[in-house]
Design a protein that fits this description.
The chain is mainly beta. It has 3 helices and 10 strands; from the N terminus they run ββββββααββββα. A hairpin with a 5-residue loop joins strand 8 and strand 9. The longest helix has 6 residues, at about 135-140. It is globular. It starts with a strand and ends with a helix.
Length: about 150
């Protein structure tokens, strides 16, 4: 599938990388279909809206930046996207790169959970207040919290 992206022009994306958020993302509930695209720099990915070319998010695997990261999501919530087993789950955190030059952060309190079998996804809010919406990625990597 040809996808018009915010930052890379037109790219070809395999249908297996088309993700559907039945409820959208928080603050972007009207947008449901996205393409998951590898970014130019590892370990990041782009989540590019298929409905709005100017809407794209940078993602990172939260387990790469927080070695003790845990998701405690109830089975009822996971059943919304037909998760049957933890092996079906892919998790990403949305990255914020401030225009002001401040720290690059990841939202570990509101991760994206993707069912790798059917590409249905949702964003959850974790009850554990240990995780924040502004987890400093570079600081965590420098401290060895790989």
């Amino acid at each position: 599938m040809e996808v018009q992206t915010k930052t890379r022009g037109t790219v070809t994306v395999d249908d297996a990388h088309i993700i559907t958020f039945p409820n959208g993302l928080f603050g972007f509930e009207e947008y449901h279909r996205y393409a998951l695209i590898e970014a130019e720099y590892e370990p990041f990915f782009w989540l590019q809206s298929l409905d709005e070319q100017q809407l794209a998010f940078i993602l990172v695997d939260p387990f790469l930046i927080a070695k003790d990261y845990e998701l405690d999501v109830d089975d009822k919530t996971l059943s919304e996207i037909e998760i049957d087993t933890p092996a079906d789950v892919i998790v990403f955190a949305i990255v914020t790169v401030p225009a002001s030059g401040g720290p690059v952060t990841a939202n570990l309190q509101g991760p994206l959970v993707i069912n790798r079998k059917n590409n249905q996804a949702l964003q959850v809010i974790l009850a554990n207040t240990h995780w924040t919406t502004k987890h400093n990625i570079l600081k965590a990597l420098k401290e060895g919290k790989k």
